[in-house]
Design goal:
Largest sheet of chain A: 6 strands, mixed
Radius of gyration of chain A: 23 Å
Number of helices of chain A: 15
Number of domains of chain A: 2
Strand order of the largest sheet of chain B: 1-2-6-3-5-4
Helix content of chain A: 40-55%
Helix content of chain B: 40-55%
CATH superfamily of the largest domain in chain B: Metalloenzyme, LuxS/M16 peptidase-like
Order of helices and strands of chain A: EEEHHEEHHHHHEHEEHHEEHHHHHE
Shape of chain A: globular
Number of strands of chain B: 11
Largest sheet of chain B: 6 strands, mixed
Strand content of chain A: 15-25%
CATH architecture of the largest domain in chain B: 2-Layer Sandwich
Oligomer: heterodimer
Number of helices of chain B: 15
CATH topology of the largest domain in chain B: Cytochrome Bc1 Complex, Chain A, domain 1
Chain lengths: ~425, ~425
């Protein structure tokens, strides 16, 4: 394709991933790791508190997410209205977030308000009171959102996929039902909080100009010894379910489109093929000009978008292709996805196509490390999954050195047509 | 303060350059002064369909995305009622690739029958995915024609009816292209670690030979003042009711816009704001209650949107919202509320200026609104808003006769 570019095209500089060095790590006196990410504009600082308190660690379903949401709903010092008023008065943004493998709080604040904001962060993270009234309102609100989610084909297909892959009994695969909300109580949250939101279970990232300035405040608020010194979290790893592959229909009444989600059991970050698999899925459906976007969107016009991804939790990896299409086109879409995979299993990708993916990935990595706030996001994935400080250096190397033969081998190993789970959520 | 320089080419292309030394990337943002408001009422959705066609390739570059990716870049675009915006972010040493691609598709687009057919189908699926296959997805489609009777804001960017897209062909697309896609109808904004003079030199190199087209004068029908309360009730298969109320206000450049932007932040911008605090937490009428500006260039709307808690009467909910809004004209907002809104404005402004691509877009937007320098005057304009001004603007805006209401309620099972 390079050769096909006309003469008017300007000279191309091969993109480089730029500086992907891992930020410095220091520790509070109790051992809590603090990653310091410098540079960026004056005046604004982002501090994130990450706990090993994701969905994977809960024994009562919904406890992780509910505990996280309730952090800012009242503390032992202030009721919900007062604590929110104090936070908002500083102009800071407080975003509690709970994921499958971690949970915590992102704060972004004017540097001049850092003192007040860290004091409030300690208060909501370590001293929430989980008042009954706010708890009931939170449950009602989540229940309402849950009922809306029942009508979304994309939500239903995603749930059914994880259920098929991970099984109904594991935190990764379990599908929420209405009764889960009814049976959840404040004591579940208190239990979850007291065992998970503790210094020994956390790390902190500080992103902005002169990040060191936050250290004395972090020491003051987060070095409490009450729960013992920091220790590396012990991860209990769930296993794949024994559900057999094949087509799974999920009825969503009166939908005008269906979500098709086709997927496979995958591999985790420590597997030698993990980075290569990232390249393979990118070729298949990881960018606008990918095989599937060209075929299903730009040639057939069946969909607004189609994407492929290879990801991993702890102990469980997955590969998924997802798209929303008109009900009438979903079988044909599955057939076209299968055909495209068969082609990649049979024929070598061209050097030109591979070069596009190479250059694009270098640009992607450079963007991930563009500015301190972005770096904070990028390193979270590395720290949470212990992926290695040189993860992106190795990724760049893999992308640059992978051969068409290896890519064909990856498609034959990981995209076995008989082992695919095909979830179709929509109206029959 | 965002430093930038401006230069206009002979052919009318306006170029803005902002140097940001903190990033290895550069963003080219090209904004075309054409949006859904410029469409014929009989063929709505064309501006947005055209945005899709702009990725369809030219004689010189058959696959638009390939050179962008070869240069390590990413790109996207969006269309709204007012304008169509395209951007490419790539390593700064490949800036020329982005300029070449934008210059190339400004005049060389391949508008074949086949390309148009496919994108009509893609846009139809986009319409289904965003507006029909989502609970509450059609609210905007209902609100626009209720609030506007004359001005083209009466249809959303996707179009009045998706059948309009079906009628587009090579002739209508070609006419649209020649009329709206030219140098004098565009603003090019570049942000990254590059000297403004170099940006201007490269802009001349890649865009200098584009023909000069006469600058269009936009003549849109003016929406007459609303003087009766409008209301519709729709039943849909949703789990809970939603209340929408919308009031006409002034355009993006007006003082009222700034005043209402601050006021709506006090009402619902954060968890401790009035609506979440009073209507959600205290009175438990809504599970979510939000009020915001639609944000258009021409006179737009202030929109309240609230999801009702099950069992709440929607008429009662509506009265509760009105009561809060009427209070605003009688009792001024407190100093603490004003201080909070100012601090939040400052944080959010710094946050949005972190990224060079955001700055590139915002500079282009302000230039479209009349003057890119507006980006630096904005802070002062927001900080100077007083409680008294808010009371006066609220009294003028939140009138029952200026309000359009939608009761979006669950179908009886």
């Amino acid at each position: 394709m390079k050769d096909a570019l006309p003469l008017r095209a300007p000279a191309l500089n091969i993109p480089s991933p730029g500086d992907t060095s891992f930020p410095a790590c220091t520790r509070l006196s109790n051992g809590v790791p603090v990653y310091l990410i410098g540079n960026g504009p004056e005046g604004l600082i982002r501090i994130e508190f990450v706990f090993n308190a994701g969905q994977r660690t809960e024994s009562v379903h919904l406890a992780s997410a509910a505990t996280n949401t309730m952090l800012t709903e009242g503390t032992y010092l202030h009721d919900a209205a007062s604590v929110n008023n104090l936070i908002d008065a500083t102009g800071a943004l407080f975003s509690p977030n709970a994921d499958k493998d971690s949970a915590g709080l992102v704060t972004v604040t004017l540097t001049r308000k850092l003192d007040e904001v860290m004091s409030l962060a300690e208060e909501v993270l370590f001293h929430p009171s989980f008042p009954e009234r706010e708890f009931r309102m939170m449950k009602d609100k989540r229940m309402q959102a849950f009922l809306i989610g029942r009508q979304r084909t994309a939500v239903r297909a995603r749930e059914e996929f994880y259920r098929a892959l991970c099984g109904d009994e594991t935190p990764y695969g379990r599908v929420t039902c209405a009764e889960d909300y009814a049976s959840l109580s404040v004591s579940h949250l208190q239990d979850f909080h007291s065992t998970h939101y503790i210094p020994r279970n956390m790390y902190i990232t500080v992103a902005g100009r002169n990040p060191e300035q936050a250290l004395p405040l972090l020491e003051r608020h987060f070095s409490g010894e009450g729960s013992g010194p920091w220790s590396k979290p012990v991860i209990t790893v769930p296993l794949f379910s024994s559900a057999s592959p094949g087509v799974i229909y999920c009825e969503v009444k009166d939908s005008v489109q269906s979500t098709v989600r086709m997927g496979w059991k995958g591999i985790t970050r420590d597997h030698p093929d993990y980075l290569g698999l990232q390249v393979a899925t990118m070729l298949l459906g990881g960018y606008f000009g990918s095989r599937l976007m060209r075929k299903i969107r730009e040639e057939k016009g069946y969909t607004y978008g189609i994407h492929a991804v290879a990801g991993a939790f702890h102990g469980i990896g997955y590969i998924a292709v997802m798209t929303d299409v008109a009900n009438a086109w979903r079988e044909e879409t599955v057939m076209e996805i299968r055909k495209e995979i068969a082609r990649l299993q049979r024929d070598d990708v061209s050097d030109d196509e591979l070069q596009v993916v190479r250059n694009h990935t270098m640009g992607e990595i450079a963007r991930l490390f563009d500015g301190p706030f972005s770096v904070a996001d990028a390193i979270k994935g590395i720290v949470d999954y212990d992926a290695g400080h040189d993860y992106y250096t190795r990724f760049a190397e893999t992308v640059n050195n992978i051969t068409p033969g290896k890519i064909k081998e990856l498609f034959n190993t990981y995209f076995n047509q008989e082992e695919a789970y095909v979830i179709i959520a929509g109206t029959a | 303060m965002i430093r930038f320089e401006r230069h206009t080419l002979e052919n009318g292309l306006r170029v803005i350059a902002h140097r940001d030394e903190g990033t290895p990337m550069v963003t080219t943002n090209i904004l075309y002064d054409v949006g859904a408001r410029d469409e014929d009422p009989g063929s709505t959705g064309l501006a947005h369909l055209f945005e899709h066609l702009m990725f369809g390739g030219t004689r010189e570059v058959p696959l638009f995305d390939v050179p962008v990716m070869m240069a390590g870049g990413e790109n996207n675009a969006f269309t709204n009622n007012d304008f169509t915006n395209y951007y490419i972010t790539l390593p700064v040493n490949n800036l020329e690739t982005a300029l070449w691609l934008e210059a190339d598709r400004m005049t060389g687009l391949d508008l074949s029958e086949e390309r148009i057919m496919t994108q009509k189908s893609v846009v139809t699926e986009e319409y289904r995915q965003r507006y029909l296959n989502q609970p509450y997805g059609d609210l905007l489609l209902l609100l626009k024609p209720l609030a506007y009777k004359v001005h083209p804001y009466r249809w959303p960017a996707i179009g009045i009816d998706i059948s309009h897209i079906g009628k587009a062909d090579t002739i209508s697309a070609g006419r649209f292209y020649r009329k709206f896609y030219n140098a004098s109808n565009a603003i090019l904004s570049v942000a990254g670690n590059i000297a403004p003079d170099e940006v201007f030199r490269l802009a001349e190199k890649w865009f200098g030979d584009k023909p000069r087209a006469p600058r269009r004068r936009r003549r849109l029908p003016v929406e007459p003042g609303q003087n009766e309360r409008r209301q519709i009730v729709v039943e849909r298969k949703v789990p809970s009711a939603q209340l929408i109320m919308a009031w006409h206000t002034d355009g993006r450049n007006s003082r009222d816009f700034i005043v209402l932007d601050m006021l709506t932040d006090i009402l619902s911008g954060c968890e401790s704001a009035r609506f979440p605090n009073l209507l959600v937490r205290e009175k438990e009428i809504f599970s979510e209650a939000d009020i915001y500006l639609s944000g258009e260039t021409d006179p737009g709307l202030v929109i309240f949107s609230g999801k009702l808690r099950n069992g709440t009467d929607i008429r009662m909910a509506e009265e509760a919202v009105e009561e809060e809004l009427f209070k605003l004209s009688a009792v001024p907002v407190t100093d603490a509320e004003l201080e909070k809104a100012r601090n939040r404005y400052e944080s959010l402004r710094l946050f949005s200026h972190l990224s060079a691509s955001n700055k590139a877009f915002n500079l282009a937007l302000h230039e479209l609104l009349g003057d890119a320098e507006g980006i630096n005057r904005e802070k002062e304009r927001y900080m100077s808003v007083t409680a008294g001004e808010m009371a006066v603007t609220a009294a003028r805006t939140f009138l029952p006769s200026n309000c359009s209401i939608i009761h979006y309620i669950p179908e009886e099972q």
